[in-house]
Amino acid sequence: MASPSKDPVLPYAEFAARLGGPARLIGVDLGTKTIGLALSDLGRRIATPLETIKRVKFTPDAVRLVEIATKHEVGGLVFGLPVNMDGSEGPRVQSTRAFVRNLAPMIAIPVAYWDERLSTTAVTRTLLDADASRARRAELVDKMAAAFILQGFLDRLHAEERREDLRRL
């Protein structure tokens, strides 16, 4: 287990190597009021919105996330990292990193970050295009943003696997 003072997030290649065989991943869109979750299939090809956790305090939020990860036999977590448009890290990034550091002693699976710039914007635009009501958008946006984050990560994972396969030829 990682110590709470050190960032327990693995570099991408190490995270991918630790996954091993078939296992689901959970994508996490950590907001100030809610936590959006998405779940991959066992083959790690498709991300599907799962649920939204209403934030209370760290411990109950983390316990709920661990319960969901355990229930779905998850092999890893992918947290959206809300970097600024210029690539700098602001208070939301610091908050996400702190949440992950505090979560690490509670869960024994690898954790990775994925740049989530514009994920909520893209999802909101999609919901507006679908003519979803304001209430429906509020209900869906967080878990759909988590799916957007996770799908980007899964796509990268498979692109790297294809590159590795080509190198072996």
From TrEMBL:
For this protein, the parts annotated as crossing the membrane are none
Has the keyword Cytoplasm been applied to this entry?
yes
Gene3D superfamilies cross-referenced by the UniProt entry: YqgF/RNase H-like domain (3.30.420.140)
Q: For the YqgF/RNase H-like domain, which residue ranges apply?
A: 23-123
Please give the InterPro entries that the UniProt record associates with this protein.
RNaseH-like_sf (IPR012337), YqgF (IPR005227), YqgF/RNaseH-like_dom (IPR006641), YqgF/RNaseH-like_dom_sf (IPR037027)
Keyword Lyase assigned to the entry: answer is no
Q: Domain of life here?
A: Bacteria
Q: Which Pfam families match?
A: RuvX
Single GO biological process annotation from the record: rRNA 5'-end processing
- Coiled coil (UniProt feature): none
According to its UniProt record, the EC number is: 3.1.-.-
Please state where this protein is localized. Answer: Cytoplasm
Primary subcellular site in the record, as a coarse category: cytoplasm
Q: Which family does it belong to?
A: Belongs to the YqgF HJR family.
Q: What is this protein called?
A: Putative pre-16S rRNA nuclease
Gene coding for it: ruvX
